[in-house]
Amino acid sequence: MDHDRPAPNQAKTLDEPQPTIPKGFDRRNFLRLSGLAGLGLLSGPGKARAGERPGKAAPSAGPGQYDCVIVGSGINSLVAAAVLAKAGWRVCVLERNDRLGGCIRTEELTLPGFKHDVFSSWHPLFVTSPAYAELKDALHANGLEFANNDYPTAVLLPDGRRLILKRSRQENIQSMNAAAAGDGDSYQRNLAELEKSASLTFGLLGKDLWSYGFTRMMCSQAYDMGMHEFMSYFGESFQTARGWLEENFKSDLCHALMAPWVLHTGLGPDSALSGFMDRLIFFTLEVAGMPVVKGGSEGLLKAFVKYIESRNGRFVVKADVDKILTQGKKAVGVRTVDGQTYLAAKAVLCSVTPGQLYQRLLSPELIPAEVKSQAGQYRFGKGGMQIHLALDQPPRWPDPELGKVAMVHLTPGLNGVSMAGNQAENGLLPAEGTIVVGQPTALDPSRAPQGKAILWLQLQELPSEGGLKGDARGEIAAPADGKWTQEIAEKYADRIIDRLAGQIPNLKESILARKVLSPADLARANINLVGGDPYSGACSLDQFFFWRPLRATKNHSTPLEGLYHIGASTHPGPGLGGVSGLLAAKELLD
Ligand SMILES: Cc1cc2nc3c(=O)[nH]c(=O)nc-3n(C[C@H](O)[C@H](O)[C@H](O)COP(=O)(O)OP(=O)(O)OC[C@H]3O[C@@H](n4cnc5c(N)ncnc54)[C@H](O)[C@@H]3O)c2cc1C
């Protein structure tokens, strides 16, 4: 993909994922409600510059040229830009990197013909989000195609036992009941309860929480459910995954299937709220599967760019915004490090961390003391690593059905996930971290030359950049400054490959090339992934819902008129749902 200008999209056929809907469930209502998790002074007119990506009908920069300027080009910015452009607003998206997309990037990272999603790859959150419901026609008309199957996830234990989740509730009930009598029935009961409270659950994750509409919804839910049941809903939601799993499932295999998924929400199995996230994720995986974009996630980016440009939107890369321009207490545009200005008649949206917004982009005198201090205290989570493999042949799993699964977790089980997270929190390379094995070619063979395959491996339990203190196995020496080096990353990747090869006999001989990205690489690639935290901020309860990004701010507003804060650091948190971008855009259009 050309860094400055993605090639025109080749794909023409439309291929929406077709979720299997639990009986009696209203998909349209689900899509409407969902959204998981998963957001100076004028210095004169700007002018064209080297990194510009003018669209067909893109206006040139200048005072009052845009209705809205958006800082950053990740999923939330793209959603906001598309929704505003659809409503006729002139939008300009500014990206500091030399390419658009943030965590959405596809590259032939290893060898020609092997198309790796460098960062994010899996789209259950997007296809169930209200942003997709709003934009899907426009995106599919501009070339977006998904590939999906009926095998979203599985777990494989060190002793070879495994459990596969399918998109059929009945089959899942059966396989869990086979793991331990009653576990499948308990699974059914738990998901049925979630369906019953779907409007409350998806309201929490798909709406602005500081709003009259949300308060009204809460009151009517409390009335309908009765106060006691309503409060119990919250008590239960705050439960840890460990508590929920141990209470409801006897089999360690069921525990091991579900526990690793909380890592994908930035939590651990002993974190408050992780039980709720587990239930929500399994519900979503059954409904939506694990769709990937045909040909690579860049297909999603290209569809957005094509649509937004067709609506007179404009994209500029290598545009590092370092100042929000203000008049009094109102944001009126931005300035980039090389002195260009982009003026916004109606709004400025920033997809940045709280630290960047309140400590870099805004002049200190404009920020209330409470906001300033909370932005300084905003916490980031553990580091993440990606290992990309180009394989000469598909992996030969102990059970061939595992070869069809989108995402397999290798873990010793619930305690193993807990232990690895704890070791990482304490600065240690885990002895036996959870291995997330994504198999994009199982869904979309076009990602690799015929007969070959790729693997997307993710490690989410690692010390962050600067916080590396040692190795739980005592084998890999940590540097005095706590910083990741390529040598350490490669040694840790060797540990992971060795464990994987213990389960996949043909793995080592099949590896044609590999690319390892450490937490330091993630942080370098995207300024919002501070310390290599893939989720742009810890997702603990105190930094979620009403309190994300900060306790002192509400929804996506900021202390400045016309300035909105979106992106993974804001409500409803990380993931490809694009909900913060949608909510901010909707507020502007209301
Ligand atoms: C390795 C990895 C794998 C993941 N896998 C998945 C997955 O499979 N499915 C899923 O749902 N989620 C996944 N996630 C999470 C998800 O990708 C992110 O939470 C989400 O994409 C973040 O989107 P965003 O809108 O916050 O912007 P980001 O994607 O973070 O992009 C923000 C952009 O803003 C730019 N920017 C920041 N500051 C400035 C500035 N001052 N001036 C100009 N530009 C600026 C940055 O350069 C960046 O390009 C993954 C994340 C990572 C890191």
Explained architecture:
With 590 residues, this protein is an alpha/beta fold. It folds into three domains: 27-104 and 119-144 and 294-377 and 549-589, FAD/NAD(P)-binding domain, CATH 3.50.50; 169-289, no CATH class; 383-532. Helices cover 35% and strands 17% of the residues. It contains 21 helices and 21 strands. Helix 2 (75-86) links the parallel strand 2 and strand 3 (91-94). Helix 5 (169-179) crosses helix 6 (183-196). The longest helix has 16 residues, at 486-501. The radius of gyration is 23 Å and the shape is globular. Mean pLDDT is 90; it is low at 1-64. Flavin-adenine dinucleotide binds next to helix 2 and strand 14.
Name the descriptors.
590 residues; binds flavin-adenine dinucleotide; disordered N terminus; 21 helices; alpha/beta; FAD/NAD(P)-binding domain; 7-stranded mixed beta sheet; 8-stranded mixed beta sheet; 3 domains; single chain
Please render the helix and strand layout as text.
Layout: H1 27-33, E1 52-53, E2 66-71, H2 75-86, E3 91-94, E4 106-107, E5 116-117, H3 124-127, H4 130-141, E6 146-147, E7 153-156, E8 162-165, H5 169-179, H6 183-196, H7 198-206, H8 212-225, H9 227-237, H10 241-248, H11 252-258, H12 274-288, E9 292-293, H13 298-310, E10 314-316, E11 321-327, E12 330-336, E13 341-351, H14 354-361, H15 369-377, E14 383-391, E15 407-410, H16 414-425, E16 428-429, E17 435-438, H17 440-443, E18 453-462, E19 470-471, H18 486-501, H19 507-510, E20 511-517, H20 519-525, E21 563-566, H21 579-589
Parallel strand pairs: 2-3, 2-13, 3-10, 7-15, 13-21, 16-19
Antiparallel strand pairs: 1-10, 4-5, 6-9, 7-8, 11-12, 12-13, 14-18, 14-20, 15-17, 17-18
The structure holds flavin-adenine dinucleotide.
